[in-house]
Queue: 4 jobs
Job 1
Amino acid sequence: MNDLLTLLQPYPFERLRQLFADITPNPAYKAISLGLGEPRHATPQLIQNAMIQAITRAPSGLASYPATAGEPALREAFAQWMLRRYGLALDPATQMLPVLGSREALFALAQTVINRPANAADPKPLVVCPNPFYQIYEGAALLAGAEPYFVASDPARNFAPDWASVPDAVWARTQLLIVCSPGNPTGAVMPLSEWQMLFELSDKFGFVIGSDECYSEIYFRDEPPLGGMEAAAKLGRADFKNMISLTSLSKRSNVPGMRSGFVAGDAALIKPFLLYRTYHGSAMSPVVQAASTAAWQDEAHVVANRALYRTKFAEVTPRLAQVLKLSLPDAGFYLWADVAGDDTAFARELYANYNVTVLPGSFLARTAQGHNPGLCRIRMALVADTTECVEAAERIVEFVKTRA
């Protein structure tokens, strides 16, 4: 067996299942889960229609092997979306590829980029990532033969990574930097000044930047979040050197079951990334490609989806702010709240007494630089409909008041 598998830790949701294993929740309350970040808004009909039509259309449908690079129409849809969203004119043939969701792509990117030392006694390369973080960053690093390095977070800036705290000795060993903006779980968005610092570090030390942008289309301000490639273009880096952005339809279009997204960026990285994916067998179904093309070509459903989240957060955030320290995030669909105590005990007691599931913040972080930044925090995914989320918030308010 691959001995690197022994380095992996249980996913946060497996840890949550174990945390609740001995609890029978209060039967007086219907179960409400704010734990899993799985979109639950309705899948747009236009996407469903495109999938149904693709299944029955001859000679495509399911009767042919798909190309790993995707159909030209799909890559053109990516390019047109990037032009509308970010003002970037990209070559669909050389600067973008379909992927089976951002998680699969993040894993594959690490396997493509990481170059293990020839001498096993030499230090392992590093993958630098935020803390708290999405767990695939760690798993991808470990299974590529690298070590994850977790950057200290700044509570004063909504737990955004403190990139300036990373010493040059770490950057010198870094082969991949993973950035998440808007961030999971905090919703923090990186400003242009931070992108400039990271690009300068990449130029100096030669590492690749992978920008996880799967929450980019759910935001609460008038101006949409700055994208990594958009930042590069603003800073005169039109070749997107050592830069790959990853995005997904899961959150944008409420289709997590389609497992569909795309990567874009440096053509010199896209080429070996395609080679890796060809051997790995990561081709997207023709049916999913057709549905994805329809999704990327339409913005009306995205605007409607964003409005649903804005209404929901406007209802829920002030209620919870009565008893918990939290604020409206820049983007994303999570609330990251300070519970002023043991986050795992809070989650257990809330589940037992009010049948509401939240995710302990410590499950989304690692102890690094002597501290786990998720301690005393919880993540709440406002993915259900507004009525259910409001009911969950009211139960949480009552629960916190009874603990006081």
Job 2
Amino acid sequence: MTENKTQANAQDVDDFIASVEPEKRRDEARILLDLFRKVTGWEPVMWRPAIVGFGQYHYKYETGREGDFFATGFSPRKAKLSIYVMPGYTDYSEILSRLGKHGMGKSCLYINKLADIDLDVLGELIAAGVRDLSKKYPVKSS
């Protein structure tokens, strides 16, 4: 079986954030870093070259595929902020309706800029996602 491409690494989170361009996106990354720390109580770990992850869980599918993945996190990409907050199997439409302007993938949100959303509602969504994920898999600090 192939190994999961998304792996934790030893890259320094603060160094990564300091390298984010443009400066406005770097400032938003620092805001998200503080928010995720506050909501989860966990310290961040880098996953792949550009994902800041919080917490970790071990999954095992019926197919036998298994691995480790971050519980929640974000990536300050140039085009949009990618925010990984939802386990992908729970309906968060009520919270999302209050969040503000965003796009969605299966387990992540895409946000053009933090000014488009309500950060308190994002914090609520992060907490709900981690809570619901921990009902399916044991989640621990990274």
Job 3
Amino acid sequence: MLSKIPIDLKNVSEDEIDKEILRAGIIAELDAVNLYEQMAALAKNDDIRAVLLDIAKEEKTHIGEFQALLLRFDTQQKEELEAGAEEVEKELSK
């Protein structure tokens, strides 16, 4: 993983560990998306570029899977995600 997990998972309380594992998974998948899309932008071969972009798309699905699970276990995260979406809508509708 290119990014460092921001916390030491060994120091996380038992009731928080699952949420932090899901967040670490999201971080890893975001890293993968960034890496594959950057490599695709650099690739000279169209086939390589296409495969890299397809893999990046799959990683985005994985992010969605981790996020869906996280939102089941962390109601505050869900509320803040919804609040953030509302703020964007308000800002864009000005």
Job 4
Amino acid sequence: MKNLKFIILAISCLVFVNEASSKLFERKDILEMKGIVKQTGSSDYSSEYVLDSALVTIYNETSITTTVLFSDDKGRCNLILPFDNKYTVSVSKNGFVTKIIYIDTRVSRKTKQHFVFPFDIDLFQKIEDVDISNLLKEPIAFVNFNIIKKDFAYNYNYTDRINAQIRKLYTEYYLSYSPINYLKSDSTTAITDQIPPEIISDQTVIGTIDANVIYKIQVIAVMSGPLPENHPVFSKCGVVEVYYNDGFFKYTTGEFGDFATAEKRLMELREIGFYDAFIVISKNEIQVPYEEINLSPAQ
């Protein structure tokens, strides 16, 4: 009988929590932050991967923890922040560098609205030889209510600048790392003699040009878009195309008929700060992976 009473009590509590959660989302005085936590790559042709089980901790202005949650299997996390408060949000995961977001939900007393603010946060892997602690002493982003836009916004120039500086340090680290550094400096043996024949035979060789294949360079992808007209991507990259796919606004530049020309342009873009740019390939106007393109030697 006691067990039955406990089950009934547990069910009642569950119903109460669900009703409370539903009412919270119906409120008109909250900011709902819809985020995606991702891993940022910094090596050649890097790609971004969502991170599940990332720890998201929300602190109020007195540094007291108000909410603790984890990103789901698609990297998503929802933050419900009532108005007229200041919050610090910490996003962390083992093996990655923690990032902090500062959020100010103070608005006009007359404002009664349920605001939804999509965002994504990229976590860099911890590498002992890459020290970015000085760059992350302050929050990576400051979110507050913009009176002119009558919506919540953040200083993307500030965030982009800090992220670019971090990516530069990672890029320099990867470029300084040599996969054949086991060779002695005084070695007279050819490098190819140190590599097993089966690996040499599998190396990609750039060959003939296929008129149906187009190479472009993706310079940036953002969830909260489209980008404003004064964003550096437009002034630095020349002609830029944008398309929406998988929940992101993706910006590409260039249209090249061969891989070598696209790769040369890619290196130029990385030199001016677009460290995560990479080549995308389309065949007959359909995007395809590298493996599906015939890169065999010319006959």
